[in-house]
Amino acid sequence: MVELHVLDTHLYPGARGVLEGAATLDPGPCLVVFSDGAVAAGEIGFDQVLAVAGHTTGAGTAIGPKSWRLALEGRSVRVVKRAASQGALPPSRQ
Question: Distance (Å, rounded) from C-alpha 49 to C-alpha 27?
Answer without folding.
Answer: 9
